[in-house]
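anyone seen this seq b4? input:
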Amino acid sequence: YPKAMGLAATGLPALAYRMGEEVANELQEMGIHINFAPVVDVQRNPKNPVIGIRAFSDNVTTVSQFGVAYMSGMESQGLLACAKHFPGHGNTSTDSHHTLPIIKAKYAQLDTCDLVPFRHLIENGLSMVMVAHIALPGLGLADSVPASLQHSITTSLLRDSLHFEGLICTDALNMKGATGKLKPDEVALKAYLAGADIL
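predicted toks r here
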């Protein structure tokens, strides 16, 4: 199957829906009931080393349309889709597998760009959201603590403000963006207390 950006380059969300159906059928043949996709990050930073062609586009509308279509195709076949990386990993210049990316955007910028695809998917019945290991000092949060360990992101923003009622999972908790100087059990506990259902 094509990468997300290649799929979106067709300009045909119906193909994303069809691909979602086929991916769901193949995964369920293997007994897999969750796909940690789609990536609905808006790829706004050309120096982004980790998202790139995993994103549908740098255009908010395109990301929203293809994200909803791909999700809907998967979920129409009973597979749980998981939108990631909340609240948006598209404007980073570092890789959260190796360090903690810092996004300095204010809420107004996130609200009109990065959060838009998540809102569209939630409104269309999304089952799961993955929270990113990114720091958001532009929201008045510490630049040393990832969103995945922040109650204000996982619960206050995602649950309370965006009214998401599905499952919340973290990105991998052994990634350097999550661990920092914390021990594995401390990372897991902080993610759970932040509001994650699945670690």
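The mean pLDDT is 96. The first helix runs from residue 4 to 8. kinda curious what u guys think
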